[in-house]
């Protein structure tokens, strides 16, 4: 049995070409602890963790009112590694994350997400070892969110129930 820990931060953004003031940004902070009760050769970790997913959609309809969403979650995931040879490893992960605290902000107005909400996150990819201390990796990631209607603290702002899928390609160096 082998334990693992991970702290990860990822993010991305873009600005629309037709309107300089608009922007979109996603961030994810994840801390997890896991163990491998199965194989040392091709480990399959059972992880429990906390994540904070953050989304900033700036100036979509009104330049003075950016929309921010934050989700605090606890979850469980399975993370596996299959060694093809000494340099090449396949990776996969799938997990369920319960939203225990979520919110939307529009300017200074807060709208809380207090009913049952969740996210399903996963990826598939590979790592190629360039040297004993350096590797590169490529992952195809997806996140599916099912968020309840938000409860507003003013009659001016609430968000309806939403279901959305975010996907991305991640390419990076590992040291």
The main pleated sheet reads as: 10 strands, antiparallel
Q: Could you tell me the number of beta strands?
A: 10
Percent of residues in helices: under 10%
SSE arrangement, N to C: EEEEEEEEEE
In round numbers, the mean pLDDT is 83
Briefly note the structural class of the backbone: mainly beta
Q: Which runs of at least 5 residues are low in confidence (pLDDT < 50)? A: none
Q: What is the terminal-to-terminal distance? A: 24 Å
Q: How many individual helices?
A: 0
User: What would the principal axes of the Cα set say about the shape?
Assistant: elongated
Strand percentage lies at: over 45%
Q: C-alpha Rg, in Å?
A: 19 Å
Topology at a glance:
Blueprint: E1 2-14, E2 23-36, E3 44-58, E4 67-83, E5 88-106, E6 109-113, E7 118-129, E8 135-147, E9 151-152, E10 162-174
Can you walk through the features of this model?
By secondary structure, this protein is mostly beta strands. Helices cover 0% and strands 70% of the residues. The chain has no helices and ten strands. It has strands spanning 2-14, 23-36, 44-58, 67-83, 88-106, 109-113, 118-129, 135-147, 151-152, 162-174. Strands 1, 2, 3, 4, 5, 6, 7, 8, 9 and 10 form a ten-stranded antiparallel beta sheet that branches.
């Amino acid at each position: 049995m082998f334990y693992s820990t991970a702290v990860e931060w990822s993010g991305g953004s873009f600005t629309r070409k037709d309107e300089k003031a608009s922007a979109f940004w996603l961030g994810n902070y994840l801390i997890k602890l896991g163990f491998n009760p199965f194989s040392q050769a091709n480990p399959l970790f059972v992880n429990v963790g906390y994540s904070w997913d953050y989304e900033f959609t700036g100036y979509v309809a009104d330049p003075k009112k950016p929309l921010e969403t934050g989700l605090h979650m606890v979850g469980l995931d399975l993370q596996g590694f299959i060694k093809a040879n000494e340099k090449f490893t396949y990776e996969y992960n799938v997990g369920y994350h319960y939203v225990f605290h979520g919110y939307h902000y529009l300017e200074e107005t807060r709208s809380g997400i207090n009913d049952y909400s969740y996210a399903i996150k996963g990826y598939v990819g590979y790592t190629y070892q360039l040297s004993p201390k350096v590797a590169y990796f490529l992952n195809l990631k997806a996140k599916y969110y099912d968020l309840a209607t938000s409860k507003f603290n003013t009659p001016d702002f609430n968000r309806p129930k939403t279901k959305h899928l975010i996907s991305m390609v991640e390419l990076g160096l590992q040291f």
